[in-house]
TrEMBL record:
Lineage, top ranks: Bacteria, Pseudomonadati, Pseudomonadota, Gammaproteobacteria, Lysobacterales
Active site per the UniProt annotation: 273 (proton acceptor)
Domain of life: Bacteria
Binding positions for K(+) per the UniProt entry: 267, 269, 305, 308, 310
Organism: Lysobacter yananisis
Record's protein name: Ribokinase
Top-tier EC class: transferase
GO MF annotations, alphabetized: ribokinase activity
Main localization, broad class: cytoplasm
EC number of the protein: 2.7.1.15
Pathway: Carbohydrate metabolism; D-ribose degradation; D-ribose 5-phosphate from beta-D-ribopyranose: step 2/2
Family label: Belongs to the carbohydrate kinase pfkB family.
Length: 326
């Protein structure tokens, strides 16, 4: 069972991608050829979240699958630099990739090529059961096979850890089995609407979500994850927190909003990942503190990440956050 020795420990099961990024004035439309400024760097929702958790101060293990190529070597080098406990399955498939466009307002569109990420198997996750047993918080997303996410959460739950699901990207399906093993879910607006509809809820407009009244939003969250907590990240509108009845995680209210941090965003790529990694680290560090405190920390951490270009490389440190916000 999880005990005080697990405090501050996070395990992330997820993807690593080499991101190929073009910054340009406006996102391309069908039929357009545009010139942009290119850079490449480390990404993948799993790796971004693991990097964020480590920089936020958690002892972090990252379970993933990498190709035997330059991308895989990049992941190993960077993981060592951030002190990540890397548990990588070496695959014949190439390391995952992503093509990303970022516009002048810092908004992005992303296409991924899963490559090795698709090879991350439940059996490999099982080989790293000890890391899951030692974690206060297990965090995963949907860029790796569903069965592997389920295996990770089942093991973490059995060991007494908390499970944090970032149901991203929006087009990925999460099964009932995965939802049943989820304690906290953290979709953005698009992911929330897509996942809610898949679970039989109303068809909502992601662009109108932040404008719904709090009681209505809370009711929709309860439909997404009746037994657990939901945090909808809403970009410039901050986020919305919704808890199940009788499981307020130290908060005074069952639902409330947290404002976004005052930052000058230049690139929002990986901001959701920054939020998730920081939330996992904060929960692991101080599991008995009010949930709202952790959410406020994660909102600031995510905000700071948008002031730099890139995904994993843009994650701030706990010290930078405290210097900026106190
Ligand atoms: O969330 C941002 C990430 O999504 C990028 O780093 C890209 O690799 C994709 O996984």
């Amino acid at each position: 069972m999880s005990n005080s020795a697990n405090k501050g420990r996070v395990v992330v099961v997820g993807s690593f991608n080499v991101d190929h990024v073009w910054a340009l004035p406006a996102l391309p439309r069908p039929g357009e050829t545009l010139a942009g400024t290119y850079h490449t760097g480390p990404g993948g929702k799993g790796f971004n979240q693991a990097t964020a958790a480590a920089r936020a101060g958690a002892a972090t293990a990252f379970v993933c699958a990498l190709g035997d190529d330059a991308g895989g070597r990049l992941a190993r080098e960077l993981a060592a630099g951030d002190g990540l406990d890397l548990r990588a399955l070496r695959c014949a498939e190439p390391t995952g990739t992503a093509g990303i466009y970022v516009d002048a307002d810092g908004r992005n569109t992303i296409v991924i090529g899963p490559g090795a990420n698709a090879e991350l198997s439940p059996a490999f996750v099982g080989e790293h059961a000890a890391a899951l047993d030692a974690a206060q918080v297990a965090l995963t997303q949907l860029e790796t096979p569903l069965e592997s996410a389920i295996a990770a959460f089942a093991r973490a739950r059995d060991a007494g850890g908390s499970t944090l699901l970032n149901p991203a990207p929006a087009d990925a399906v999460a099964s009932d089995a995965l939802w049943a093993l989820t304690d906290i879910a953290t979709p953005n607006e698009t992911e929330f609407c897509a996942q809610l509809q898949r679970r039989g809820g109303d068809a909502l407009d992601p662009d109108a979500l932040a404008g719904l009244d709090d009681a209505a939003l809370h009711a929709h969250c309860r439909r997404l994850l009746a037994h657990g907590s939901v945090v909808i990240t809403l970009g410039k509108s901050g986020c919305f927190v919704s808890h199940a009845d009788g499981a307020l995680r130290g908060d005074a209210q069952a639902f409330y909003r947290v404002a976004a941090a005052a930052v000058k965003a230049i690139d929002t790529t990986g901001a959701g990942d920054a939020f998730n990694g920081a939330l996992a680290a904060a929960l692991a560090r101080d599991p008995d503190a009010a949930f709202g405190e952790h959410v406020r920390y994660a909102v600031r951490f995510a905000g700071l990440s948008t002031e730099r270009a890139g995904a994993a490389a843009a994650m701030p440190s706990d010290a930078e956050l405290r210097a900026r916000f106190g």
